[in-house]
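Reviewer comment 2.1 asked that we show a complete input and output for one of the modelled complexes. We chose the (2S)-2-hydroxybutanedioic acid case, as it is the one discussed in the main text.
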Amino acid sequence: MKVTVVGAGAVGASCAEYIAIKNFASEVVLLDIKEGYAEGKAMDLMQTASLNGFDTKITGSTNDYSKTANSDICVITSGIPRKPGMTREELIGINAGIVKTVSSSLVEHSPNTILIVVSNPMDTMTYLTHKTTDLPKHRIIGMGGALDSARFKYRLAEALDAPISDVDGMVIGGHSDKGMVPLTSHATRNSINVSEFISEERLNQVKEDTKVGGATLTKLLGTSAWYAPGAAVSGLVQAIACDQKKMFPCSTLLDGEYGLSDLCIGVPVILGKNGIEKIVDVPLSDAEKAHLAESAEGVKKTNGLLEL
Ligand SMILES: NC(=O)c1ccc[n+]([C@@H]2O[C@H](COP(=O)([O-])OP(=O)(O)OC[C@H]3O[C@@H](n4cnc5c(N)ncnc54)[C@H](O)[C@@H]3O)[C@@H](O)[C@H]2O)c1
Ligand SMILES: O=C(O)C[C@H](O)C(=O)O
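Response of the prediction step:
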């Protein structure tokens, strides 16, 4: 199993580290445009192998796509992150050009690959990847919902004063400050709906804190987060590599599902060796349906800024 990660910055390196530590891939290639950077990150990570007990071989490359040839899975993290006060959508001007070039180069060298798009604004970059490459829709996956759901569970556990392993929940919709739709109607503690344990007001606070999860960290860190994003990507990569048939909310091209078409947005999917093997239709409350429709309008507005 060969995995390429483009962008050896904060998220790319974290993602490579988690993939290696989980020890399911034979090879991870890190590629970056900055001279020597990916090689340096790869060497540093390889020097953790004996300490962390993994055998995955990590190599680095400065923009040489021949090193990525025949990758089973490619992850795109290249692009600029936001600074405090910015929205993800403001990154489109620079990141669209980067994602376009990177996705074409990856597919040229790995025509059978599955692509995971991370660069922001992620839903629009996933849509752009469809427009740029000829890959079938089940082989292009946007990562956002897996991260947002992890943050939702963190906030739920905090509000319930419960261990995180007791809670479950999922966030669908656009990966943006306003577009995320935390599914409170399905959130549980040990199969009991969380509304049995906390007030509607507290649950609304959980929802709002989840939606601005990325912005909160960006304000604290001065740049956007990387540990949870890297771990979330590694979860998707593992589900595909190990054919786990796990359910994650991922950004995928919709064609009528959830009443939406011609956009990529987060919905629950089953991930296995073929990439997105199924889009799962879950019942939503009226408020969640309205919020998802509003979120889709936001994503379409951002897609409209693309020069296609
Ligand atoms: N979807 C998500 O949930 C999620 C989560 C976190 C970050 N992000 C996004 O991921 C992106 C990366 O974030 P980061 O914190 O790792 O940024 P970073 O600046 O630390 O790393 C980005 C790397 O991309 C490289 N790069 C730029 N242009 C390139 C090109 N053409 N080819 C190859 N490499 C190139 C840079 O040299 C840099 O090393 C940002 O757009 C950020 O908003 C998305
Ligand atoms: O918040 C960001 O800009 C980065 C990423 O999308 C995140 O949610 O951490």
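The CA atoms of residues 48 and 54 lie 8 Å apart. We note this here for comparison with the apo prediction described in Section 3.2.
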